[in-house]
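Sequence only, no structure available. Ideas?
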Amino acid sequence: MDKRELLTDWAQRVTRASAGGMLGKRIAITYVETVSGPRAGALHILAGLDAGRLLDVLSRQNCALLRQMVPWNFQGDPAAFMYGRFVRLEAGWSDDLADSDVPLSRITRKPSGNGRWVVGIDERGRTIVAGCNLDQTPHWLVSGTTGSGKTVALRNAVTQLCRDEQNRIVLVDGKLGASFRHVNRAPFRLRHQVGPVAVNPDQWRGALVWATREMVARYENGYEDRLIVFVDEVQEIIQDQVAAEALRRLVTMGRDAGVHVVAATQHPVVDALGGPTVARNLGGRLSFRVNDKVASRVALNDSSLPADSLLGRGDAIIKVPEAAYRIQGTYVTDEETGALEDGDGFELDDWPEAVAEDIGVEVRQRGRRSPWPGPVEIGTGLMATAQNQGRDRYREGVEAATGRRPGSGRADRMLDLCRATLEHLQERGWEIARTASKALIVPEIAFAPPVVTCPK
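Reply:
I predicted one. Tokens follow.
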């Protein structure tokens, strides 16, 4: 059977079970609409005052009864929830019926303009467009776990928005360059990309502080273009207090200066976004699959929409204040991105150095250790691995030097990193010089054997 026939069969099964009392007390269903989406089939059911009871019965015990009624081998977990006046039932299509491959070129090759970009197609085959507008969605939150399609969606948005002459683009990458690796290769520059991709804490801070300065200048002098700041893995960025404060100011004050933020995270919880003020100002929501219902509620600012039941690979829910749609996200190819290269160079060759005083932040020591290792941890780790010392000795060495003892997990990660670093150096001809108490990797010095360095 095709999708339409399968949905009709499903609707008949639910209607017969409701009318015949198979779901408990008889439930009067007055209307059923079938919805054939790219990744899932759905039913919209009107049951009047019995809607709550129908929803309760079908969602019990992890949708046990609902699972028995779906007439195809569905992917993922079926879901039942209220969708306006309707009880909505949905179940993922099997692989042979699903449409998970939607390149942007299949929909359109033309940019939307005016701060807008095509995000995907909805369940009725309509093209869905998002936008950084001054009214309801000046800023966006994009959420999704690994493999869900979040990073592809960011690249899609960046590639479309950089085509518009009225946009300037800033890219801040909490994945150390992995999120925007399609443009993070020198000397590649997308059209209207202000500076290089910010890929480390100094650059994150510099790019965001520069954007706040630009925002203030726009308030004072006016503006003619649109500045769009993309921040991926925002939970990593905000570990730096200066970057966190700059981000807060951008999302609270940027709208009227034509400055917009598209923030993305794998972990949509309020603290990971920099607090409730930041979360409230991210009016547009685009969520791919997340881990649980709590993350789903934060990702979409809605407790009824189940982003935790999405299927990955571009399956998403987009929500703006007046509507929500389930969509299949589009993607752009490397060839499409490469066609947008601008060889004229960046406006800024590098992001300016930024410190707390630049933005009026009083930096306080947080209880949480920075995710970035310092020189002491790196140096101690190299010596510990060179001397085949274990985790406990490494932790003791760091504590003796800094007064803070790293956790076991952090110590394990550092030792793994240092071990790999030593192997890399040794493969290139470096050797370890040992003394009675130390192990060092040092360059060749002719008068001080047996220290050896890279071969000539």
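The mean pLDDT is 86.
Hope that gets you unstuck.
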